[in-house]
Design goal:
CATH superfamily of the largest domain: Aldolase class I
Number of domains: 2
Shape: elongated
Number of strands: 15
CATH topology of the largest domain: TIM Barrel
Order of helices and strands: EEHHHEEEEEEHEHEHEHEHHHEHEHEH
Radius of gyration: 21 Å
Distance between the termini: 52 Å
Structural class: alpha/beta
Bound molecules: iron/sulfur cluster
Helix content: 25-40%
Largest sheet: 10 strands, mixed
Strand order of the largest sheet: 4-5-6-7-10-11-12-13-14-15
């Protein structure tokens, strides 16, 4: 795979000339068609390039063998393909997940994960930012602070690296790695559309999940796009008082704004929303919180994903006992909500977002220090 010249940190989508070369990875079919046309070729050559990039995953124009040689030479002279470089691979002992640390063109590193399910499904979890500015209290990435947004090619490139390394067909993608995806809206949406390309990964929109801590304007914008994307909202607390301490973004977008935005998304897309709820022992896992959660979400077309925390060094949180997890799940289920208890895949391989990067010596302490949370 190619590692290469510097990238434009904040770019979110168009053809970017760098040292005179257009970065091909991240361009959509229409842009590739226009590029082909600008180089004196018919537009359909753009579709051929897209197939090579996203279907075959080639990292060199020279490998696009159904393009005329003269066109390949012109394209090669005016473009580049910059894959993330694979730096580290870690397998879970039970084979359920593989975590990748990849390096971007400017030397920044992000993580992505391949998850293998017993029914044969293969999912990729991709990062959308280097670090994260959201500062969630229990999160390794939050401890590292925020560096920059990823471009669409850098996001998609993680899926290409996983596919090439593991030799699997990726059937689902979750944007749940490092970063807040909706804070990098344009690049993430572009990556999602590229992943859906039939000549590329061919992953239907319903099999793409975007997670968010609850950025209300972006949720409403996404609803207006009327895509069939799955939205996963990291809720983690049923009251503002508690959520303010666990998810600082709640100060900006409290539950009174977030929940109506979620209802609007479900109504506009007819899609069931997933609410993620990390269970923290003695913090948000009591029967009172389970009942408050059920009351908060009453009447919503949604699904609850309960995740006993994957403890992170440097944070004060502990995983609840199995009995507490099951009692919480039973209470919410009894209120009529579908509930899944998700055991984090790859706990042994430091699979909570940001942990491999921290272990690798990258990242820095966050300016936001988690305050102790009172036991209810
Ligand atoms: S949980 Fe997600 S949004 Fe929160 S700090 Fe971690 S990466 Fe950012």
């Amino acid at each position: 795979m190619i590692g290469g010249a510097g990238s434009d940190p904040g770019r979110t989508g168009t053809a970017v000339a760098c040292r005179g070369a257009v970065e091909l990875l991240g361009l959509g079919v229409t842009e590739l068609e226009a590029l082909a046309e600008s180089l004196g070729e018919p537009r359909y050559r753009g579709r051929q390039i897209a197939r090579w990039l996203y279907g075959h995953g080639v990292d060199a124009v020279g490998a696009m063998t159904d393009l005329p040689r003269a066109f390949r030479e012109r394209l090669q002279a005016s473009s580049r393909i910059t894959y993330p470089r694979l730096r580290r691979v870690q397998d879970a002992p039970d084979g359920s997940a593989t975590k990748y640390l990849v390096e971007l063109a400017d030397g920044q590193r992000v993580e992505c994960v391949l998850m293998r399910f017993d029914d044969g499904r293969r999912s990729a979890c991709l990062s959308s930012q280097v670090g994260c500015a959201m500062g969630c209290a229990f999160c390794a990435t939050g401890l590292s602070g925020f560096s920059r947004n990823l471009g669409p090619g850098e996001i998609l490139g993680q899926a290409l690296v996983i596919r090439a390394h593991a030799g699997v067909r990726i059937g689902n993608v979750v944007f749940m790695g490092m970063g807040e995806p909706l804070a990098n809206y344009d690049a993430v949406l572009r990556a999602a559309r590229l992943l859906a390309l039939p000549s590329g990964f061919g992953i239907g929109m319903r099999r793409l999940t975007i997670s968010t801590v609850g950025l209300v304007p972006q949720i409403r914008r996404l609803a207006a796009e009327r895509l069939q994307l799955t939205l996963a909202v990291s809720l983690h607390a049923p009251t503002d008082a508690l959520r303010d301490r666990l998810v600082p973004a709640n100060h900006r977008y409290p539950l009174a704004e977030l929940i109506p935005a979620c209802r609007a998304y479900a109504a506009a897309t007819n899609r069931r929303i997933t609410f993620e709820y990390v269970l923290l022992a003695g913090v948000n896992d009591s029967p009172a919180e389970a009942r408050a959660l059920a009351a908060l979400l009453r009447g919503m077309h949604c699904h609850l994903n309960l995740i006993p925390v994957n403890p992170v060094a440097g944070t004060p949180f502990r995983r609840p006992e199995v009995s507490a997890v099951m009692a919480f799940a039973a209470l919410v289920r009894r209120a009529g909500f579908p509930v899944t208890v998700r055991i984090e895949r790859g706990t042994e391989i430091q699979a909570a977002c940001g942990q491999l990067r921290l272990a690798d010596g990258q990242g820095r302490p966050s300016r936001w220090t988690p305050s102790p949370v009172a036991t209810p």
